Amino acid sequence: MMMQYMKELEQEPFDPDEFVERLAWRTVADSRNEGTGHFDPVLLHETFLQAIKDLQLLQERQQKKCERLEIMCREEENGHWQQISQLQDRNKASVSMFQELDERINYVATKVIHLGDQLESVNTPRSRAVEAQKLMNHFAEFLSPGPLLAEVFTDKTQIDEAADIIQKLHLIAQELPSGKFEKAKKKIAAKYDEIERSLIEEFVKAHRSDDKGRMKEIATILSHFKGYPQCIDAFIEQSQMGAFTGKDVFHDVIPLCEKNFSVMTEVFSNPDQVMAKFVLNIYHLKLQKYIVTSLSDRSDTDRYLKNLYDLYSRTVKLSNDLSHFQMGNDNMYLSKLTMNIFQKYLDSYISVETKCLKEKSAAVLHRYYECKNHQKKQIQTGGFQDLRRDLQAVIGTRANFNIAQIENYGGETFLSEEVAIALLQESKLAFRRCELLSRQSDMPGNALQIFEILLHYLMAEHLDYALELGLQSVPIPENKTQPQISFFDVLRQCNAIIHLLEKQFIDSLVPLVISTPKHGDCLQKKKYLLEQIEFKLDTGLDRSINAIVGWVKIYLQTEQKKTDFKPETDVDTLASPACLAVVQYVRSMVERIRDSLDGKNVEALMMEFGARFHRVIYEHLQQFQYNSAGAMCVICDVNEYRKCVKEFKVPLVNTLFDTLHALCNLLLVKPENLKQVCTGDQLAGLDRSILLNFIQLRSDYKTQKLSVSLKGLAT
Predict the structure, then answer these.
(1) Of 90, 156, 229, 304, which has the highest C-beta tally within 10 A?
(2) In sequence order, what are the residues at sequence separation of 6 or more whose Cβ sits closer than 8 angstroms to the Cβ of residue 627?
(3) Which of the 8 DSSP states describes residue 474?
């Protein structure tokens, strides 16, 4: 049972209640198995007593076992503490010994250093004396007549040692006086040059065999010789040999530099200086020759400028790409190389540019006028010419024949957006070249020169000339033939060209002159020319509107019959043929005006056109008398005019014709209703004299004695 109790007690977790229950259950189960079948409390009591005794015995055993283990643990702990104490003592002894050893090592080291210094102080003079003796022996050989017999100078495998000796002898020889040492100095100089040449030749061989180690050794030796630059030159010559075989020199530069820069870094002690000379050789011998050949022909200035722009931009880009290589402390080195090549071309650039731009602009205009079979002529402008035109118009109207010679060139405007675009494109290219090829200080002035040429050929020679022709082609007012106004086409094309000019001004010119006094000059020149153009456009529009309304006036005077508004018999109340013809013509003019202008300009011109058209119709209607049938006809005419002017899309003009329609109603209403109509909303604001003048146009004005009934209205 003791083992059974141990198993149960060692279970995790241990539950004492469950332990008691299992003990009781086993006791009851055993009694039942014996066949009694009855619960025996005495047996259960005895079982519990026995279990308690067993557990007490088990506790005593475990207690003794724990005490024994604790004694063993304390003994082992004491043993470990003793070991730790011994180890600490040994560690203290070791530290003390280490300190003693360190002090002894320092003492020995000091002695060694002192001994080394003493040995060096003895050995250095000795080695120098040995070297001096060696040099003296070699110098003595140079003093003796005949060839050199020393193996170091005859054996080519000892050239490095020979180079060291001859370099030192050469320095010594420089300090010796002439006279008895003259022959020796010459022999030393000759051997110096011979060894120097041999080293350079061997350097070239090593370069060809790609032996960078040997190249570095020779370069280090030659760095003490006068011929060291020749070594660098030989390296550059060998490195660039076979390069630049293609047509495009620029294409080969960067790969060649990248390939050789790594070799320079490995071989030379001063790779940045070698790289600077390497690039200098490329710029002066390769690029310059290529550029001079490309720019030698100036017979075609346009091609010359394109080549100059292309070559300079590619050279600048090449310099920027090469800037990541180390080439010394001069940050402007590559820029200076570029300027050395292009200086003479850049100095004369703007004179070539302006000459080319003038020639090309003149050629564009010449081809255009030649295509139109037109010979440009001198145009007289000014107040006298305008006065002459006005006098011709007045005389022609009074004398009933046309003495003014108006030439409209078949509706040709002699303006071309294609020509303008061509001129603007040429100047755009010129501005682009100006930005790249001009000095920073000269750029605003050069840009202004290009802009002045553009203004001269585009604005003065083309647009202003076409405007003058357009002004002269506008028919005189009060012409009997229906005027064909080509000036509206001139206006439309002018607007398009000016918009193109403004865009180029902002995009191409302003960045070149901004924040300089030339910016103000450019703005002033543009403003002056545009004001002149605007004045002439206004003059042309004024003449065009006068021609239109003048023809309307003459046409209505000649085609409108008195019987249209005072028929003898009943007629259909339709708009008169004269009215319909006028409306059709005016509508066509409105459509052309809207095609030619935009924005507020359309509204302003339509308002002026509408006001003048209203004045002509108003004055025309006052030339007739109207009976009731004629009043219906005139109202039909006015309705047609109202429909027409609605296309003007100007509220004020609509109001004018609505008021005219209301005035025409005075010709139709019954006499007794006149006062009521006159005080209506549409007519209440008009001057009473206007109302009376219209009422007097009634055919029944006198018969109905309307003047008497309207006396109150007159006051």
Answers:
(1) 304
(2) 565, 566, 567, 698, 699, 700
(3) S
Backbone φ and ψ for 626, nearest 5 degrees, come out as -130, 125
**What are the residues whose beta carbons fall under 8 Å from the beta carbon of 250, sequence distance 6 or more?**
287, 314, 315, 318
Look up residue 479 and give its two tokens.
């012409």
Rg (CA), the chain: 59
User: For tokens 């020679």, what's the residue?
Assistant: 461
Q: In whole angstroms, what is the distance from residue 705 CA to residue 445 CA?
A: 82
Topology of domain 560-710, CATH = Methane Monooxygenase Hydroxylase; Chain G, domain 1 (1.20.58)
pLDDT tens sequence across 594-633:
888 888 888 999 999 999 999 999 999 988 888 888 888 8
Average pLDDT over residues 316-330: 84
- Tokens (6 digits) for 199: 């080293």
Tens digit of pLDDT for each residue in 385-420? 555 555 554 445 544 544 445 666 666 788 888 999
Q: Match 């010129």 to its residue by tokens.
A: 430
> pLDDT confidence of 31, banded at 50, 70, 90?
low
Residue 695: closest CA among 631, 632, 601: 631
Q: How far is CA 92 from CA 85, 86, 87, 613, in A?
A: 11, 10, 9, 126
**Residue 167 and residue 127 in contact, taking contact as beta carbons nearer than 8 Å:** no
According to the model, what pLDDT value does residue 560 have? 86
CB atoms within 10 A of CB 483: 21
Other Cβ atoms within 10 Å of 640 Cβ, number? 18
Q: Is 698 helix (H, G, I), strand (E, B) or coil?
A: strand
What is the average per-residue pLDDT within 147-176? 72
Q: How many residues does the chain have?
A: 715
Largest CA distance in the chain: 166
Give the three-class secondary structure for 621.
Answer: helix
Secondary structure in 3-state letters for 125-187: HHHHHHHHHHHHHHHHHHHCCCCCCCHHHHCHHHHHHHHHHHHHHHHHHHHCCCCCCHHHHHH
Percent helix, strand and coil across the chain, each rounded to 5? 75, 0, 25
User: 34: which 2 tokens?
Assistant: 């014996």
Please tell me what DSSP assigns to residue 268.
-
How far, in Å, CA of 211 to CA of 452, rounded? 64
- In the numeric block, which tokens belong to residue 94? 């070791």
Decide: 314 and 342 in contact? Cβ < 8 Å: no
Coil/strand/helix, residue 626: strand
Contact call for residues 357 and 430 (beta carbons, < 8 A)? yes
Entry pTM: 0.69
Q: What percent of the chain has pLDDT over 70?
A: 84
Hey, what are 714's tokens?
A: 């007159």
Tell me which residue has tokens 């009934």: 709
Q: Look up residue 475 and give its two tokens.
A: 């028919």
Distance from first CA to last CA of the chain, Å, rounded?
A: 148
Rounded distance between C-alpha atoms, residue 402 and residue 390, angstroms = 12
Dihedrals phi, psi of 602, to nearest 5 degrees = -60, -45
Element (H, E) at 282: none
Question: Residue 278: which residues within 8 A CB-CB, separation 6 or more?
Answer: 236, 239, 240, 257, 260, 264
